[in-house]
Amino acid sequence: MIGVDVGLTSFATLSNGEHIENPRFFRAHEKALAKAQQKLSAQEKGAAQRAKARKVVVRMHERIANRRNKFAHQLSRQFVNKYGFIAFEQLNVKGMMQNGYLAKSIGDAASRQFTTFTESKAAEAGSIVVMEDPTNTTQACSRCGAHVKKELKDRVHSCFELTHLLTQT
Fold first, then answer.
1. Where exactly are the structural domains of the chain?
2. Of these four, 5, 47, 81, 92, which has the most CB atoms within 10 Å of its CB?
3. Which residue has the higher pLDDT, 115 or 132?
4. Is the pTM for the entire model greater than 0.85?
């Protein structure tokens, strides 16, 4: 049994404390892609050189997408083989893509693609995948269950019970 929290800094954080690094396929090839697109835009429309430059740009996008697909397929297969019950946060990725500052990183992470692949592989293998409602998941303390209001910038929660117990001993 495992819970998976997909994100941008690390691709996934598992409930057992393990972190899976975000490979950032698009970011790694962004500069080379920009150069290829500049060469394409410099070519005259209808010219043979423009067609060649267009093929280069298309191929670069294809390679990035193929690497992202391969990563998602391999990781989802590992999860399904290792765990019988997998829980994901049901994130509104389409809504998150509306954020102009994070859209490129959210698209590059392809977390929705990963969850879809995991769901389909789990259905074949007889494993269970559950999509949890993310509302107030960061507000509840995982240790004592207390509901503690936090801002979006607050990432760490110090449990009152744990702090209280440590100060008494």
1. 2-24+64-134, 136-169
2. 5
3. 115
4. no
